[in-house]
Structures are given as C-alpha cells and as structure tokens.
Amino acid sequence: MSKRPYVIDEMISAKQIAARIESLAREIEFEFGSTDKLIVVGLLRGSFVFIADIVRELGLPVEVDFLEASSYGNDMESSREVRILKDIRGEIEGRDVLVVEDIVDTGFTLQHVLRLLNGRNPKKLRTIALLDKPSRREAEVKANWIGFEIPDEFVVGYGIDYAQRNRNLPFIGKVRFVEEDEA
Ligand code: 5GP
Ligand code: MG
Ligand code: MG
Questions:
Q1: Is the CB of 105 under 6 A from ligand 1?
Q2: Which of 67, 117, 120, 125 has the fewest CB atoms nearer than 10 Å to its CB?
Q3: Which InterPro entries match (predicted)?
Q4: CB under 8 Å to 56, separation ≥6 — which residues?
Q5: What are the catalytic residues?
Q6: Mean local confidence (pLDDT), 66-72
C-alpha cells in the first residue's frame, strides 16, 4: 500500500484512448492481414485492460496469451534485471505474434521479453505499447506502435497501478503527491 497521500490528475481520457485504439487496430489489421491466427501476448498485469480493448477492436482471428515479467525494484522504479514470472502457454514458432505492453519506460522489460520470444522463431513479432516515455529510455528498444508519448510522469489507470491500486480507473492519470489534508 502507498503511504504518502496523492491525487490523480487526468492526463488521457477514456474517449481519447478509445479513439486511438480504433486507429491502431486498423494499422495492426493491415500489418497482419494475411494471418491465419494472430497470437496476442499481454504482459501482465498492466496491459490487461489495453489488451481487452485491442483484441475486441481487431477484425482478425486472434488467440490471447499472457506473460508476466517483473523487474526487481520498488513501486515507482524499474530495474535492469528482468525475471519471467509466468511464461506464455502456447507455441509461437512460425506464428504471428503481437506483444502488448502498458508502458515502455527504460525499455529493459520489453527488450528482455522480445529477446526471449524472438529466440522461439516466430514468423513475425511486433509490439504495441499504450504509453511510451522516450525520455526515460536506457535499453535500445522501440515498440512498433505507440498509443501515446508521455513525459516522465508516474501514471496510473486503465490497467496501470500504483502499489496495486487505481488499475480500474477508465482513464490515464498522473500521480501527484499532496499534503495530508489535500488528499
Ligand atoms: P521498463 O522496463 O521499460 O523500465 O519498465 C516498464 C514497466 O515499468 C511498465 O510495464 C510498468 O509496469 C512500469 N512503469 C513504468 N512507468 C510507469 C508509470 O508511470 N506508472 C506505473 N504504474 N508503472 C510504470
Ligand atoms: Mg508492464
Ligand atoms: Mg506495476
């Protein structure tokens, strides 16, 4: 649980997210147009709302799978060391795969996951991230599609948590710490 009181300022509305997902889905359909079945891999837990919205917007046959990676570190900072806590269930060799991430921050998580999955020889491996913080990048990695570029702010909502809270907000908001009586 978080100890310091904070408020959440809306940064990206539910409407903006929905509109962006519609146009991203058209681009993804174009890229994977000839697929027999696209394997959509959500990175737990932050992408669970995003992947739900993306797959329902895609006019392609899809299979949904999940992978959970974790970087050592505290609630607000990631680290270079990435562990796989839960691997995908399905085989991806020779298959079309789309990895769905919530936020690319330093990029270490996505880099690690892409190396792992690429080692299994998929036919085509692409990545979409809802949010990108390019100013924070340390690992050389880039998602093929980005929902929104954001500044170096700590955000929550739309699946993304602060100490396991606020995942159920329908919008993306910025965490702002306040004095006890303002919260
Ligand atoms: P990276 O390995 O790119 O540094 O870390 C990516 C992960 O760090 C994201 O998938 C997310 O779990 C976490 N992260 C990065 N920025 C934020 C943020 O602003 N808010 C929250 N809640 N998590 C973040
Ligand atoms: Mg994540
Ligand atoms: Mg988290």
A1: yes
A2: 120
A3: HGPRT, Hxn_phspho_trans, PRTase-like, PRTase_dom
A4: none
A5: 105
A6: 89
